[in-house]
């Protein structure tokens, strides 16, 4: 966003004009959503405070009852913040006075996301008062780069930011302090490359069969099963893929697991593989294959991955398919293609991308770098799942529930993504669809959730998204 602002300024746009647009947007946002009550505006010394002064004068024009407090005296303000303060003709009171002043709503215009040290003294005390808070840019006290509180910080009911979402608005723990986030368009032409997951992003692209579509036109998903003692993961993924709409789903099974797989599968087909060539042949007939869930950390799994990534078939790689490359991750990066999806949890991510999480400012940056390195779509699982494509576009999914932290949950996620890819959805969109549908399924089950419950929720959820009554 900084680059886009700089381009605008060098194109002749006055930075104070931008601040006025920002402050006016804040006033509109606050007035529309918190239409009643006395407003206490808390201003910092920089641009964030400047937005606060503009908003305060605009809110007063809307006949709102407004008091303004500032961390520094009016005469110490500089640049745009000083110009903005000049718009406020009444008193600017010292910040300490705010502690005891009557109010209903606080407008937190103290600091933006560039804050470099923890809040102290009066500011820290104000942040801990509770009550109804609306924050400008980010709740003050949040480090916008790491998306973590630097110490005490405001907890907002709503946050208004400008031009585009930043990681702190969607990544935990910062996102939990933001409340509802509104992105105001102030004329900064950024191509938003960070989005929050929602059916609004992809609902219209959910695949659905036409009246005369036959199953072969809905794609073929293959899922590679582990050995006899580890077959459940593949079946969870396979059934989820079928529910997501893949026309055909086949579990590819080693000979020792055929009986156990056969006794548990009905609509999902089963095919035996005993040697490398069998897997290669079977994978080539599929549109997409899921490899990794309970596949085993073995040379067979590695060979199967190499076979899949050397074929025309798209890949969804998870768990053991990633772990087998733990000591040779560059080989995996070289094989992966832009149409592939990998779905590591943090441990697997570290195995194949080293210390990227520690060396990046936050999870969004780390996942973006990973997608660029691997040249494929990366879905980093967590309470705030991040999906990134090699071009830098990222989506964060917070539509989930803690009850999803259970055995087999990730296999279902991979299965839904595979089912969508089978039907022609690109890997990035399929990952976004899958993480939201997975989260929604989890929320519908709630406490007591086991992974077998998840795919059963899909018909109702998908019907609702398609606008069909059941
Ligand atoms: N960049 C732009 O052109 C625009 C910026 N806007 C606003 O400007 C804000 C960014 O402005 P700034 O870069 O001035 O940043 P801030 O408004 O966050 O202010 C930073 C100032 O606070 C001081 N400071 C940092 N931590 C402190 C602490 N713990 N205790 C006391 N003082 C501390 C710093 O020394 C610095 O002087 C955004 O958040 C947004 O609200 C908007 O007006 C839109 C346009
Ligand atoms: K703020």
From TrEMBL:
Residues 1-194 form the YjeF N-terminal domain. Keywords: ATP-binding, Isomerase, Lyase, Metal-binding, Multifunctional enzyme, NAD, NADP, Nucleotide-binding, Potassium. (6S)-NADPHX binds at residues 47-51, 112-118, 137, 233, 345, 411. CDD domains: YXKO-related (cd01171). The keyword Zinc does not apply. PROSITE patterns: YJEF_C_3, YJEF_N. Residues 198-465 form the YjeF C-terminal domain. GO terms for molecular function: ADP-dependent NAD(P)H-hydrate dehydratase activity; ATP binding; metal ion binding; NAD(P)HX epimerase activity. Binds 1 potassium ion per subunit. Its cofactor is K(+); Mg(2+). The keyword NAD applies. AMP binds at residues 381-385, 410. Homotetramer. In the N-terminal section; belongs to the NnrE/AIBP family. NCBIfam families: yjeF_cterm, yjeF_nterm. Bifunctional enzyme that catalyzes the epimerization of the S- and R-forms of NAD(P)HX and the dehydration of the S-form of NAD(P)HX at the expense of ADP, which is converted to AMP. This allows the repair of both epimers of NAD(P)HX, a damaged form of NAD(P)H that is a result of enzymatic or heat-dependent hydration. This is Bifunctional NAD(P)H-hydrate repair enzyme. It comes from Hyphomonas beringensis. The gene is nnrE.
